[in-house]
Amino acid sequence: EKMLQICVILLLFHVVELSSLRNERHQIIEHVRKYLQQSDSTTRSLRNPDWLINSNKIGFGYNLLAGSPVCYTGACQMDEFTRSIFKLNYSSPVPGSCTDKFVPNNVELDCLPSGTQTVNSEVVDTIENLHASISNKVDISTGAKFRGVGFSYTRSKETRHMLDNIINKHRTSILTAVEISYAKLSMFEPKMELSDNFRYVIDNIFCCEEDDPMTEEYVKDFIFDYFGVAYVTSILLGGVAQQNIFIDREAKEKLERNSIQIKHQAVVSFDLSMGSNIGNSFNVGPTVTNGVSDANYNMFKKEVKSMSNTKLGGVPDLTSFAEWSKTVSDNPVIIKLKVRDIFRLFTKHYFPDDPMITNKSKLIEKIFEKYITSSVYCDNNCGGNDTYGTCQPTGFFQYGVCQCKPEWTGSDCKTAVIQHHKILHGTICGFDRPFIQVKCGGTRPWDGCPTGWIKYSWRIDLTICYKNQTVISNPFYGTICGLHSYHSPSNFSFNIGCNDSSNVYTGKCPTNYQLIHETQGPCSASLPYPNFCNAGNAVCAAVNVNEDSPGTLCGMQIEGSTEGPSCDGFNPGLRQCPPNYTPQRVSRSATIALAYLMKYHHNTLTEAFHYLLQKRPQIWPNEGFMLQLLRYESELIKSREIVLTSDRSEESSCTAALSSDDTKNPIETL
Description:
By secondary structure, the protein is α+β, with helices and mostly antiparallel strands. It has four domains: about 325 residues, no CATH class; about 35 residues, Laminin, CATH 2.10.25; about 170 residues, no CATH class; about 55 residues, Protein tyrosine phosphatase superfamily (Protein-Tyrosine Phosphatase, Chain A, Alpha-Beta Complex), CATH 3.90.190.10. About 25% of the residues lie in helices and about 25% in strands. It contains 13 helices and 27 strands. The strands form eight sheets. Strands 1, 2, 5, 6, 7, 8, 9 and 10 form an eight-stranded mixed sheet that branches.
């Protein structure tokens, strides 16, 4: 009992200790949040007209996930630049430079020749193209494990804008841009000091418990979101005039087939819109002027789905390209930059008094790795629950592409695949006998077959139509699905079901199939068995269906031979069927057996009939054969030399399989 009390006391003490630790960490989080809010309200108001515009972005944190160094939408506000990670001190202008404005200390200013221009037109229609386009504007120096995570689809509006058009709308972007370079700034990192805010956040991180929700919240809120996971070490200042055109990918291919170079036409469009004359840089000939009718350009312009024109830097409202370019030096923007990851800052060099800085670095890196791994985006989660497809990361932009299952397609795998139906060569259409008639395309097989179908008759009064070649088409009116044969009084019955109908005669045919029974008539009293009659033969015939159902007949041949139509080159008479079909048999051996007994054993038909019932009680010839046997008996009585022309004993056909392991008993009597 005392031990139990001790355990309870220790447990309560542990609970109190954990509660106290959570309260302490919660207080730290709130204290750091208030500190940063107060600092923001102070530092954001610091703007000095003597500073070179945008030079204060050196040493800034950079939101690698949300940023984009290329302004594809034309409405960029440099949201990816966060807060200062390094202190910036301004003291004086750089003597003999291209500007009388101040630049930060320990930052090198490199003035570029006046009027330096870079003209470029690029086609972006794949994820790889987009990554290359962005990589030309930013030099990212990060650890190998974090490459490819920048400019996330879910966080960067520029990336999302481009990928939505490229992937979801199947469009091609033609980006034409003229860059005017003004000056390059590069900081000398060894002499730079960390900002007070960044140091304060790192000093107060609670270390170093992994998978702790409060620790992860702290790191995400105050490091990743507040500062970013990278910082700017170099920037190129200048101006950009650009045009982004979207056309459908099919339209791009059509234009190229007509020998229309879309990049050249985009440059022509740029000159018309910007009032420039950069066409000579691309050898596209003279600039298009008002009133000129250029067939290639007009064809290109008709295919344009959207177009945006943007000037960044200088005085954007100026319509003249030449006049605008002169104002870039007075209001330069960042047109290229170089960034490095923040993990290299967590060292003794920057935090000499923190004994846990190495552990903190590993903890922050693990949280970031977890942060990016769980953030791969796929359109609509590929339908969800792996039902329609799976999300496969592309390695760029934390973006994945859905790998759809065979029956689904689309960017999110939610569009059903339209499967083009095949009518196999040898598919049976129509079924023409004296007691049951099924038309093929509205025509009795005995009278002929529709175009594309071939008539075939057997000597036993059966005529059908079969498909002359395999084609892509919907099932034909009169295609036979399922077959039922039944004779009383021996309850002889064999059946091929049509789709979900296990018994064609007593059941119902599937939707858009017609159930056709034999023509009923009075039972014959002249037969050896007075109550004998054809009491149940039936098939399902296609009326208006989109695809063949399991049980559809294809090919029909004499057993053991190739006499009759094959099924797509497979011979059911030799027990051969194409994939997803299974062989079925139709027997007439009772007729042959009776004729044999009558001819060679000199039995009467009645004697032969009763003998056959004793040996094979479930075999029963149909009425047509019984009438033939009666006539044959009369002929044998008159002359024992008359020979009955015998036919083969069985016919075989292939039917569309109900399932991969489905097996059927042979059908013994049509």
